[in-house]
Amino acid sequence: MLPDEVSDGTRSALKNYFAVTRDKKPSRSRVASTVEADGSGDIDALWAEHERIRGKFHDLYFEIPEDLYCIEGPEDFTHEKPPFSYLDLKLKLADNLFEDCVLCENRCHVNRNCERGLCGVKNARITSEFMHMGEEAQLVPSHTIFFAGCNFKCVYCQNWDISQEPGVGRAFNEKDLAARIDERRRRGSRNVNFVGGEPTPNLSYIMRTMSMTQENIPVVWNSNFYMSSETMHLLDGFADLFLTDFKYGNDDCAMRLSGIKNYWKTVTRNHKMAWNAGDMIVRHLILPNHVECCSKPILKWISRNLGPEIVLNIMGQYRPVYRASEHAEISRFPFAKEVQDVVEYAENLGFLNLI
Fold it and tell me: At residue 3, does pLDDT exceed 80?
């Protein structure tokens, strides 16, 4: 499906995202940069101020009708930026989380200016950035930025050469990356898509980068969704579209195959929070021998908690790479029957926007 062939259902489900891609509406981070905030006080006061603004930000954002801002360039967005904004407040809080790292639910509590957490990431390193044409039709062309390192240790990771090697890639300063994002947008990117590895360990870097951009562009948060609740609050009002990777239907599979504890409670919580914070596409990769324990429970939960209008990408392209051969259950490609079974199960649950 080509970008101009996106179905009416997915356009409706992602209407705010599409409005930003067409410059009919400012992005959430752009609006956040115009909302005045109080940056004084201790950390508790800063969080209280953040939550005060977050409580009214949704109403503010959704009061902006399409076509109110037909943005041709940064000079056409007329709202002046205050001395200290809601976006500045988010960045200040993200820096605080970085210094006692609880950005994800591993909650390492290390000062990442000095040492690495379980993700192996100290400073942001980018392994590639390009106009990606292989993503969902709703996203392409997508300016996709891949970060090294990950808080998961998936034995079948298809990007293991960057996710499990946090020292690869190169360091971009934020100003240079912001200029690159602006240039890609001027050349036709629909979004800036932060992925990896995993973007979560790099939240401060990403927010600082976006605070320096000039173009109006939606932020896609492309993640395994193991963020902490604090990170989810900061992403609310920053990310325009959540591109989620919903892997497992239980904690046992998550621990055995990705080394992650408390997976189900964390990821379901974050999906609910993201559903209220922005547009969403949920991805689910079908693992061989995991239809009953993972695929079906995930789809049932999504149906009951997010509803049939959610944009859902059921992916059948699993390959047994990296260390998958050490685990007999996932050491083969999915059978066509397994993929068909999952798709039919989703259809029977009434999902309207399967892609």
Answer: no
